[in-house]
Amino acid sequence: MHRSPRLILLAAACLALLPAVTALPAAAAPSRLEAENATISQGVVESNHAGYSGAGFVNGDNLAGSYVEWTFNAPAAGTATLSLGYANGATANRPSDISVNGVLVADDRAFNPTGAWSTWATSTLTAPVVAGPNTVRATSAGAGGNPNWDYLDAEVATTPGGNEYQAEDATITQGVVESNHAGFTGRGFVNYDNVTGSAVEFTVNAATAGNATLTFRYANGTTVNRPLSISVNGGAQTKDFPGTGAWTTWQEASVTAALNAGANTVRAGATTANGGPNLDRLTVSVAGPPDTVKPTVPGSPRSTATTSNSITLAWDASTDDSGSVRDYRVREGDTVVATVTGTTATVTGLAASSTHTYTVTARDPSGNESDRSAAVTATTQPGTPGGGTPVEANGQLRVCGLKLCNENGKQIQLRGMSSHGIQWYNQCLNTASLNALATDWKADVLRISMYIQDGGYESNPRQFTDRVHNLIEQATSRGMYAIVDWHMLDPGDPFARDMLTKAKTFFTEIAQRHNNKKNLLYEIMNEPSGVPWSRIRDYAHQIIPTIRANDPDTPILVGTRGWSSLGVSESSNESEVVNNPVNATNIMYTFHFYAASHGTEYLETLSRAADRIPVFVTEFGTQNYLGEDANDFAMSQRYLDLMAQKKISWVNWNYSDDHRSGAVFTTGTCPNGPFAGTSRLKEAGKWVRDRVRLPDDF
């Protein structure tokens, strides 16, 4: 079965801070905000422990997700020092996620025991704030709840000149914080992994839009240049970082870029297999007056696809003196019908056989908008009796007998694609790529692959749950079905590392928010391994009722033993499931195969199983079980012929530009594409696209 590529995605090792400012200018006097006057979710105001400030304190409920939210006014944009007064009379840490204006600035920040509930302590961090109202939310990250909250002191320092952002406090992808080479500032520096794509990402706050100089302090002890792609809010430029003579010799390299008012993302990503230099800090200074030059007009607008209720448009990219284009607007008349960051857009919700005329404009990071493009006119396709999209045609799915059926009881087969891990390849799931999947590939289903380990859900539950929410909405808007994949892989025991509790938390929120949708399937475990079927079945018996309490109708997909091989990869077979099925209705069992590794024995197991139990192939590849090396299209076609004959739905691994042969796009395709057509597809991508596009029997 597919194994983890063992990439390491490291979050910032610090306890705070987006971003950290090393030298603060004069600050306004701190404002004290009492917890008892804040917004409280799942908690009460009490006064039974002495030593608190104000009229009392907040005792939160003992569960993950309870929070207190304060609101304070900042006189100007800048950096705030936030001091949280608390008491923790328990014997264990009670971690909390601290967010400012909805942005997480401290993940699982420790609030360690204070010795008694009447012993109060203060924990301090810094974060960017905007002029005017700001919200600070402290959310319990564990089942023990938050500590008792007493107050928040907020002290704001404005930053009229340059800001310094330490690399060790940024978001790090494939790199580590070290301090073994002298001369750095702050607490250390970032040592990039020696791979293409390793990166450090800063969040930079600007009081107003305008041009800025971004200065990177670095050391490169080799003789080889280690260039970085400097991306500001998505627009990128390449900067050289040549050797400095030694790892203890630090130099600076600068680029100029346009910043938006408010938060900006500055990403420094390695472009070669040598990785990046050692990165110490980023200094940001306003370089000039606001930009007033409009981008060029988007070129050659055209219609690239239509359905009975949608029109997909494409155009040639605009350019701007700032070096990047923020987004594009599509208008019908004077009405903006789509805003996208790429050069394609799909307008949905249209009537069948209706004609529409559009123009496109571009906006730069400062908000300057280009003149309108030439007009493009397109007509939607005629309506069909079953509807224009897979969901329109089939509605709410259910398991009837041994097959997946639509809401009218017709047996159907879904065909589609799985994402790669959304902690690594989320950039491959954007407006343009999902439009292509729905309209060019004509996929019925998108599998949202959320890894639990390997830098996935466990590293930041809020972030990854929100990514899944967003991708569900993206699939829904395009009329595709979505498989919510709890992608446990290593360890293979579904109970390990408290995964059952985490799964219950995750699926409860997903089911509560999306239970009115007709296009979901829940895959409650990806590839269990190293444990008997009885343990997998026990896990299913505990997680399924949690989902059903919030969503009684959505089909649930249950993983099988041996990396979802129905036991074959661990010297068993389908009989253990057939003879001892999960005690639940509206469920199917998953099977995974990789054709170059899994031959006739696996194929025959799938065939037998499909005659005894409901089966859904939620992952397969035309390569070996690692998703790489040569394709075996002949064996793959034998599987597809069987699945077509027995109406077994399937999803291919994977819709990304990973370097392995199993990723459908060539490396570097994401995020800008093009995704439609075959120009950026590997051989496996071309092969599977042809088969996803075959007419559906709906």
UniProtKB/TrEMBL annotation:
It catalyses: Endohydrolysis of (1->4)-beta-D-glucosidic linkages in cellulose, lichenin and cereal beta-D-glucans. It is an enzyme of class 3 (hydrolase). Residues 297-383 form the Fibronectin type-III domain. Residues 31-155, 163-285 form the CBM6 domain. SUPFAM superfamilies: (Trans)glycosidases (SSF51445), Fibronectin type III (SSF49265), Galactose-binding domain-like (SSF49785). CDD domains: CBM35_pectate_lyase-like (cd04082), FN3 (cd00063). Residues 269-311, 358-392 are annotated as: Disordered. Residues 1-28 form the signal peptide. Pfam families: CBM_6, Cellulase, fn3. Keywords: Carbohydrate metabolism, Glycosidase, Hydrolase, Polysaccharide degradation, Signal. Its EC number is 3.2.1.4. This is cellulase. It comes from Nonomuraea typhae.
